[in-house]
Hints:
It contains twelve helices and 17 strands. By secondary structure, the chain is an alpha/beta fold. The protein has two domains: 6-17 and 269-399, Lyase, Ornithine Decarboxylase, Chain A, domain 1 (Beta Barrel), CATH 2.40.37.10; 23-265, Alanine racemase (TIM Barrel). The strands form two sheets. Strands 1, 10, 11, 12, 13, 14, 15, 16 and 17 form a nine-stranded mixed sheet that branches. Strands 2-3-4-5-6-7-8-9 form an eight-stranded parallel β-barrel, surrounded by seven helices. A hairpin with a 5-residue loop joins strand 10 (271-282) and strand 11. Helix 5 (96-105) crosses helix 6 (115-128) and helix 8 runs parallel beside helix 9. The longest helix has 19 residues, at 196-214. The mean pLDDT is 96. Bound molecules: ligand LLP. Ligand LLP is lined by residues 46, 48-49, 67, 90, 150, 187, 190-191, 225-228, 261-265, 301, 305, 361-362.
Amino acid sequence: MTNIDYNALRADFDTPLYIYDFDMIKARYKAIKDQFIAHKSLICYALKANSNLSILKLLASQGAGFDCVSIGEVRRALLAGAKPYKIIFSGVGKRQSEIKQAINFGILMLNAESPAELESIEQIAKELNKIVNISIRINPNIDAKTHPYISTGLNENKFGVSIDQARIMYLNAQKSAHLNPIGVHFHIGSQLCDIKPIIEAANIVSDFTSELIAAGIEIKFFDVGGGLGVRYDNEIEPDLYEYAQGILGALKGKDLTILCELGRYIVANAGELLTSVLYEKQSQNGKRFVIVDGAMNDLIRPSLYSAHHGVSLASIQKPNENFSTTDIVGPICESGDFLAKNISLPQLQNGDLLLIKSAGAYGFSMASNYNTRPRCAQIAIEDGKVRQIGKKESFEDLIQNEKEFL
Ligand code: LLP
């Protein structure tokens, strides 16, 4: 994003402020969709990465489908204009009320993650007298070699079922008058820059799919999950062509619609968090801190996963050459409240502006009100024009569910 008057943005929307590049979001969606141009595919954007309604509307207008993990996400997608037949609903613990609503909305499919959950889906479908499309999440026991908190494809993880369990579940679903098993699904982890584990999983699940088809189960969707990594620091992003070819190769000619559940790949690098410098301070042992108005409640990734986000100067009042190493920390009462560590910055003063980069995915969507801090405003830049897509919360917003009990 170039030629942006960050001081004007602060004057209009305050800081911290999330800024999203809508042209980049469209381009990233198109880049992945184009890879499957000669094949049937549905790119289901994973709302968990960023569920801002205007981002969903933008992606729906490009033809995207949506991968949801709660009925709240399903409702967000519908509100933003998504077609029910392009919505899928995954998640390791769907409540019965959520299953019921999802069935009534007529979404494309529910993705079951355990035999007990599949029984619940069947029971509810029976009560509603409907036939429900389902897929089953297979845990292929593959090490995605990413941060342990975002690795999901090993037996020790809570997600999905083994192939042996899945086989029994598919055969039961085949016999059921209320279940229609149309998909196979896996997702082995997030922020994967090496796609070999995804392709390996695709091959395992594809072979299993052949077995299901041979047993007369009419699988139509091959859901490869999400997980494509992006560049935060020195990472090399996966090559989309190799990714798509690897998946198509794994299909070995089976005529299935490829479904991807990408979140981070589409939005991470299209978002930045603008934050104002409050103070500088030096500890007794000489350690330098730049204290800013953004904090771990706005962007928790550095605290939670030791994630790296680049930092750049958006606007400084007194340019100087006096660079030194510093941590960028927020006002929250925790030592874990930092946005960056050991980076080199010039001397700064109150009112200078910093940009925390690559914050479009798992930034605002993981924001909280910790320390009774409001969640900040969000804006979009599209075709060089700025528009607001989210308001900063007010104090009233934060207390509205409690004050009646005083
Ligand atoms: N599908 C399923 C079943 C998932 O669990 C996830 C992410 C996705 C798709 C989308 O993955 P993506 O394409 O965005 O990698 N908060 C963490 C990431 C958690 C990912 C959870 N599941 C972070 O900030 O890195």
